[in-house]
Amino acid sequence: MTAGAHPSVAPPRPGAHPDTDGSDMAVDTPGSDPSATPPSVTSSSTATPSWAIDRGDTALGIELGSTRIKACLVGPRGTVLATGSHDWENALVDGTWTYAVDAVWAGLRACVASLLDDAERRHGLRPTTVGALGVSAMMHGYVALDGDGELLVPFRTWRNTSTGRAASELTELFGQNIPLRWSIAHLYQAILDDEPHVPQVRTLTTLAGYVHRRLTGRDVLGVGDASGVVPIDPATRDYDARLLARFDEHVAARRPGFRLRDLLPEVLVAGTGAGTLTAEGAALLDPSGTLQAGVPLCPPEGDAGTGMVATDAVAPRTGNVSVGTSIFAMVVLERPLERVHHELDLVTTPAGDPVAMVHCNNGASELGAWAEVFGRFAAALGHPTDPDAVFGTLLREALDGEADGGGLLAYNYLAGEPITGLDQGRPLVVRTPGSRLTLANLVRAQVLGAFATLSLGMRVLEEEGVEVDTLFAHGGLFRTAGVAQRLLAAAVRAPVGVSRTASEGGPWGMALLASYLCAASEQDLGTYLRTAVFAEASVDVVEPDRGDVEGFATFRERFVAGLPIERAAAAIDL
After folding, report:
1. pLDDT 10s digits, 205-254
2. pTM to 2 decimals?
3. DSSP labels for 268-315?
4. Which of 273, 297, 325, 486 would staple 30 via disulfide (CB 3.0–4.6 Å)?
5. In the chain, what are the domains?
6. Residue 135 β-bridge partners
7. How many Å apart are CA 570 and CA 572, to the nearest integer?
8. For residue 463, what are the contacts with CB-CB under 8 A and spacing of at least 6?
């Protein structure tokens, strides 16, 4: 992204933040029952952490990510008080990427227990309550529930690419891009395939919506998460009624009397009360009984929305890049896009403002796999090393590589990649006899390969003339200062900012959305984040280096030219 001809990005001024989102939309308060209104978690800048925990002047965010379930407890002004995590992995079962439902609850319990232990270790007491709670999870995918709220089929994650026919037909029917991973694409594909469970579906939701329902008994979704289920009408900040009717008419021959609206959770914008933690829900999170029922919950959101909040990128002309198992960029729009693009999703912020999203199915997992290989090599030499240290060392080595990766070509495609038209993925490293195979070039090629697909989608935004004032990055990859940030700036041809909270990621953003419950009646989300959380945030901004930009351009040209190799490899059943 070059200034002027692409989404232009100016580095933030010291101490400055984007304007508010300009929304004058009325936002519901958390409820008329005083017990449902959380105490302010921004009211006191002098409260000690132990005082805030004991009083419940806190907010808890939990996010079910692709490889880790993470929790973050924050106090006044979003200060992190404790964290917890639990590692988990998706499984390919009968050709479908999924997580077992038992793993969801076992992972949540382990994550919450880890957080309670961390709070006690840091502050000398275990939280028995929090001021507010919020749950987020990987966006999209397929959670189909029967009338009792039970799963009809295993959760189908965003990673599945088996919905090609459905997504193509819906894109034409709706007049906007419907990605393979969206919930409506999964439902329609199940209808096309005449799957036997379809007549029993009573609720279509997301993983975050499913967990929230079990915790509160309420069938709701935050508008950002809902925008990955069915397209949202920007005027109503609810499902687009015209498209719902169009879908019902389209499937009438196959499913007479079908009404999509009857299956969909209620849509709520950020700051709206979304129920309270029931006794059953508290036991699901913490069987020890330490965590008490009655905590107010905010609307459940997707990991894209929490990433926007965690980077203060919810206002028009702001954007962020999130790097994890997948990579996606979110740019808040000032105006509608002129054309339909398969590289771009149209979703919303947690407040309901329109967003263009570039979503890449494959992120940093392949780089992590290489780090495990080198970590094992170090251990075999008699030098066992902490995995984070191995990862950081490898990333720093990339800065010594040639700008284009020394002629090496790397694909991080563990799964299919819709942006490049691949239904399946095969991680590859390809080189010619003239390539320079060094450790630095190998790692640099892996990082450049992780950003290459993203850059293809961002180029479409350039062609649309979309302008962005700030672009922030977050995720664990940015814990190693100055490496991924610098190479990302080269890939998007724009300054990239990383704040000191970048590595906290989604669960911290979810905790901020929970804390916003107490302020929503007085401030819009953008103002709240700018004044109550990020007013004194420290942001490191890296400008694109000319040599890096030229090297990445060479690598991307090679990356695109080599896609037939990837397609041929994916066609082979190994």
Report:
1. 999 999 999 999 999 999 999 999 999 999 999 999 999 999 999 999 99
2. 0.82
3. E-TT----B--HHHHHHH-TTS-SPS--BBPPPEEHHHHHHHHTT--S
4. 273
5. 139-273+300-574 (3.30.420.40)
6. 62
7. 5
8. none
